[in-house]
Write a structure and sequence with these properties.
14% strand, four-stranded antiparallel sheet, 5 domains, six-stranded mixed sheet, alpha+beta
Length: 504
């Protein structure tokens, strides 16, 4: 302001020419002329009022520019930015729509320039343009949350899964026990149900549950993860190793979840996974409803306006965790799944089969055809379908004491009574199976009538063995009446007769 005062003094008081003033003060003639023109417009003369300080002089000479009524209107750049996230959006089409509402608006070149300038003020996290409904980014948060068992006091750490939609930043989070494939798949299913639709692409990290072989050009997905993608009709793209910018969106979402959810829960003590997830969902709603700082709306409002209409409809049935394994059937016609054994048809012994394993069912496939199906069990006892056994073994597999006693009753009451006494002392079913089978062979050889008579005589004389029955039949004693003395001897009791217990 000092030079301005000198220009005014030399010109208005001393009458020095503008050329001389410019030479004396080192200013251009145009600048000197501008100062004098502004002073005349402001009504300033020399000497200046004594109470006019530099700030007031500047306000008089350089007043705020009046609103240019002839300036061409510009759009709301935040609205343009949100529209650019929609699939197929271009600046040219948006400019044409803008001119339809504002015929006197700025031209296309200035429109593009002003939009680029506006996006520079949004910092780096908005440099990528994400199409509505196109991508979901998923990852795990670094911190975990402890869950204390109320009975034992043991503390287990729960992993925090995070998913975010690219266009709206709509965020999902949940806790589960591990990063293994069952929890990884279940989290995806619940996330898609939370979004109410499926995107075109899921971008994930290279954890083992997602990628079995990391590769810059041809990564190999986990088979179950690929089945999930096929079920929902989406594409899974693993991020490149050591390229965090490939999933910068979820990296930022993880940071937000850690700050706004996990940090708030750090002092709470949880006793179950369900209790923890209920707390996460409550804070997650608050996060999605929180207004943006630099643009209008919130994650939820942007989701409802942009992402939700663009998501693909979910299938009528949710994806069920399914694991496929290839095993070789053992010589016993069984295969092992987590320590439990299941049968297949005996013709498949020592042959490879494919297993389809779900939480409750195990299906056996051979050459693309289902050959067996079993309910999954945690028991160590083998699960055997009798129809899978060889014909000679099938009866053993189907053996039951009640069935054998029912057969014996068809022969006669004495045969049933005799078999019943044989079965009383058995410890394993092989013994009962062999005893019943022996009686059936005897019936086939001698007939039901003679077997009934032999069993009756054996009961009368106190013989409790199959050898005795066969001996009676071989000697023909079944056709003879049992002597009275034999019956008495068999049932003889006297206090002077020492039993077998006396000698132990």
């Amino acid at each position: 302001m000092r030079k301005i005062r000198q220009v005014l003094r030399l010109a208005l008081d001393a009458g020095v020419s503008r050329r001389s003033i410019s030479r004396s003060l080192g200013l251009s003639r145009d600048v000197v002329t501008d100062y004098l023109t502004r002073a005349a417009a402001a009504g300033l003369t020399w000497p200046l009022p004594p109470d006019l300080d530099d700030a007031q002089l500047e306000d008089r000479l350089f007043p705020p520019l009046a609103v240019n009524l002839h300036r061409k209107p510009e759009p709301d750049w935040s609205v343009i930015h949100q529209e650019m996230k929609r699939k197929g959006a271009t600046l040219q089409v948006l400019h044409e729509e803008f001119l339809a509402d504002q015929p006197n608006g700025i031209g296309y070149s200035l429109f593009c320039e002003r939009y680029r300038d506006w996006t520079k003020g949004l910092k780096g996290y908005l440099r990528q343009v994400h199409i509505a409904g196109e991508r979901v980014f998923v990852d795990y948060a670094g911190p975990t949350i402890g869950i204390r068992n109320p009975e034992t006091g043991e503390v287990l750490n729960a992993q925090i899964f995070v998913g975010i939609l690219g266009a709206s930043n709509y965020t999902y989070a949940e806790a589960h026990w591990s990063q293994q494939i069952p929890d990884w798949i279940s989290a995806h299913v619940r996330m898609l149900e939370f979004f109410g639709g499926a995107p075109e692409v899921i971008v994930c990290d290279n954890l083992k549950s997602a990628v079995t072989k990391a590769s810059r050009s041809e990564p190999k997905l986990h088979p179950i993860y690929q089945h999930l993608a096929d079920h929902y009709g989406l594409l899974i793209i693993p991020a490149r190793a050591r390229k965090p910018k490939d999933k910068a969106k979820v990296e930022n979402a993880v940071l937000v979840v850690e700050r706004w959810i996990l940090f708030r829960l750090r002092k709470r003590v949880f006793s179950s996974l369900a209790e923890l997830n209920a707390a996460i969902i409550a804070l997650l709603d608050d996060l999605n409803d929180r207004p943006f700082q630099k643009i209008s709306g919130s994650r939820r409002s942007q989701f409802e306006a942009i992402d939700s209409p663009a998501l693909k409809a979910l299938p009528t049935t949710a994806f069920e965790y399914t694991e496929f394994r290839k095993v070789v059937v053992g010589l016993d016609g069984c295969f092992d799944v987590d320590g439990s054994f299941y049968s297949v048809p005996y013709r498949l012994c020592r042959k490879p089969v494919e297993l389809r394993i779900t939480a409750n069912l195990i299906e056996v496939l051979h050459q693309g055809r289902r050959v067996a199906s079993h309910e999954r069990t945690a028991s160590k006892d083998p699960v055997i379908d009798p129809q899978h056994l060889r014909p000679n073994d099938r009866y053993f597999g189907m053996w039951a004491a009640d069935q054998e006693l029912a057969w014996a009753a068809t022969v006669g009451s004495k045969t049933k009574e005799f078999l019943g006494q044989l079965l009383v002392g058995i410890k394993v079913k092989e013994q009962g199976y062999r005893a019943a089978g022996a009686l059936k062979r005897i019936e086939k050889e001698y007939g039901a009538e003679r077997l009934e008579a032999a069993c009756s005589r054996a009961l009368d004389i106190g013989a409790r063995s199959l050898t005795s029955v066969r001996s009676i039949l071989n000697t023909g004693l079944d056709r003879q009446k049992v002597p009275e003395k034999d019956i008495q001897e068999a049932a003889f009791h006297h206090p002077n007769v020492r039993g077998s217990g006396y000698y132990h």
